[in-house]
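As the work plan foresaw, the team has encoded backbone shapes as discrete tokens. One protein thus recorded appears below exactly as we store it.

:::
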Amino acid sequence: MVSILQFMLKHKHMNLALIDQTMVSGVNFLTGILFARFLGVKEFGYFTLAWLTVLFVNSIQMAMISAPMMSIGPKQTENEAASYYGAVVVHQFCFSLLSFGLIFLGIKTSNFFSPTWKIEHLAWPLALAAFFFQNQDFLRRFFFTTNRLWLAFLSDGISYFGQLAILIILFLTTSMDTAKVLFTIASTSALAMILVSFPLTKLNWNYKSFIKIFVHHWNFSKWMTASALLQWTSGNLFIVAAGSIIGPASVGAIKAAQNIMGISHILFQGLENIVPVRASFNYTQTGIQGLITYLKKVVLWGGLATAIIAFSAGLLPEFWLSLFYGVQYQNFGFILQWYAIIYLLIFIGLPLRAGLRTLETTRPIFIAYVLMTIFTIFTAKYFIFYLGIKGVMLGILGTQLILQFSLFVALNRIIKIKNIQK
């Protein structure tokens, strides 16, 4: 008992991160069930396609701002921290304003380019959801980076539990659609962002440090940003193409199956909040061997946990789908089995990317996404047209194989170079 308590205290940062992510992923899992059950397969497909826009913006924000912060931030001295994080906060605010404007104008002018879409009514809810969702996500990662995990936990609690409570009431009392769901997400994210932003008043910045840190972040993240852009012409393109070729209902079915494997996001995102920071710390303190040892531990224990989740989901896929969503999804069990394999590969990418980010060598991530994009361009239409949903899943599996193999080769090469230079 004493040894267990000592272990818990020693790794309290990891424990709280996993508790926080349990909450976030648990709520996402439950809201996914609500969406699939109450919106129906087709409307759920429309929501999924709209939400991809928010996730796209968030992936760019993560690449340009949050990821560099989580790797570079822990290396700052006590005297440098206030000006560094102050500049990063200004970067984030500027980015979020720009993304809001682009999404709003893009949706408002969509009728000119494609009148059949009829999505102008989503301009305000989608732009607001993207703005507040990314800012709340940035703040939680800021608190993780600066070792104020309780503030991250509070922010997520307000945002996600608030979202769940409001959605349950609305789904049970009124008819819901994609626009109302997006407004709800924007509202709870905004509330969480505002209530925990008081520590930001202790930061400071000036124009000179703003430019210096922006250049440092850009040198760090330029390949990751390009990679994030390319990601949407690789794996996610299969989802978008599925909606175009075989209809939004197929997207709803794929997303419903993915949501069940999404329980593993408790582990993935919890580690995403901790691994880059701890990897950077280990590398700073003990060098390349300390980094390697740490990443191997992540692969061993995280891989074991992921395998247990994947096996449980893939063994009885029809049972899980009918249990959570009803019999209308029961025939899509094969999608869940595909995702069980895909998520094992997705996990492997986490320590590989953390290692490359710690060494501030992110160009290989870009190259991997270039290879994925080439694969997608030459296979997406053929796979989906001739194989339907199975073709979508085959394509997503192929992109993950290419990605993780490329990252492994690159990280292994860089480690060998570092060892030679010692």
In short: Residues 198 and 362 are 33 Å apart (CA to CA).
